Amino acid sequence: MEDQGVNKTKNQYWNLGTEALYEEAIRRGEGTLAKGGAFLTTTGKHTGRSANDKFIVKNKTSEDTIGWGKVNKAISQDRFDGIHAKLLKHFEGKDIFVQDLWGGSDKNYRLAVRVITETAWHSLFARTMLIEATPKERQTFKPEFTILHAPSFKADPKVDGTNSETVVTIDFEKRLVLIGGTAYAGEIKKSVFSILNYLSPEAGVMPMHCSANIGPDGDVAIFFGLSGTGKTTLSTDSSRTLIGDDEHGWSDTSVFNFEGGCYAKLIRLSEEAEPEIFATTQRYGTILENVVVDPETRELDLDDATLAENSRGAYPIDFIPNTSAENRGGLPKNIIMLTADAFGVLPPIAKMTPEQAMYHFLSGYTAKVAGTEIGIK
């Protein structure tokens, strides 16, 4: 912690479990309980990713290894260091929550990540979505990347060179991520994916934004698609074994999950159409973001988009029956691209040749669904 300059804090809570984090979050007024025991919270004005507020430090490590442009926006080392210093100052006198976690279920390629946040429920989210280090692993745990997460921190665009008071920025040289000004928890998991997306190819692994499952005969299918296109729904098939619903690596020998949890879009979720995912909304250990609830009965109204079109549920992957114990499978036999196309480029179902599939994949052809990112409607 001292290496990262995180000192002069009040209490430090290390690797608390689900029960303790529930207690701390409720005691601090960060959320309430829904019927069935799920933890219910809201994220304020940020109910999706802040893509326009994401930056990468341009330095000797990154300048020739990143395709700079509208998506990968550069920030200077001086600006990053200035934000870092202010964020450390922001932590002073506050309680902080620390989780030591793994990104990646394959021990040959996993990444040691330490998540430091000012809120108990975000610590619970990180613990749910990534992979816990065992008590034995924690004794010698050395983070390869650290995430400093402060939702109540506000950047100064004029001074910090940001586009708003929100900032999500990565320094690959210092192996540090800064997240401030947004309570949307998805920024934590997406930051880990961004790191793995950068590092994995050098290790011979293709990082993929996809879901994956295994058929009765061991055949692996992967489903490519942006948020909201159906990855979680289609991979959660009771007749197949779930590997994961969002972020994976493809090595020479297997497809493996980067995560230990699922992050399902819940708006208009029905028990009849998606019983396995619906059941998680009624369970202790699930985190519900921006879901409308009856204040007296605590019954959920998953059809009400008053708080957000992008309402979400985060839950441990083993809440889904028939989940792979290792979160991994063999090499894929079937590759499906979920485009949710509204522009007529492809018909609703299209069987492509390998060459056509490669073209559309390399072109980045898919869809952006309302609510998943700020500014997309």
How would you sum up this structure, described in words?
The model has no long low-confidence stretch (mean pLDDT 93). The strands form four sheets. Strands 1, 4, 5, 6, 7, 8, 9, 10 and 11 form a nine-stranded mixed β-sheet that branches. Strands 12, 13, 14, 15, 16, 22 and 23 form a seven-stranded mixed β-sheet that branches. Strands 2-3-18-21-17 form a five-stranded mixed β-sheet, covered by helices on one side. It has nine helices and 23 strands. The N and C termini lie far apart (40 Å). It has two domains: 186 residues, Phosphoenolpyruvate Carboxykinase, domain 1 (3-Layer(aba) Sandwich), CATH 3.40.449; 158 residues, Phosphoenolpyruvate Carboxykinase, domain 3, CATH 3.90.228. Strand 10 and strand 11 form a beta hairpin. The radius of gyration is 20 Å and the shape is globular. The chain is of the alpha/beta class and 377 residues long. Helices cover 21% and strands 26% of the residues.
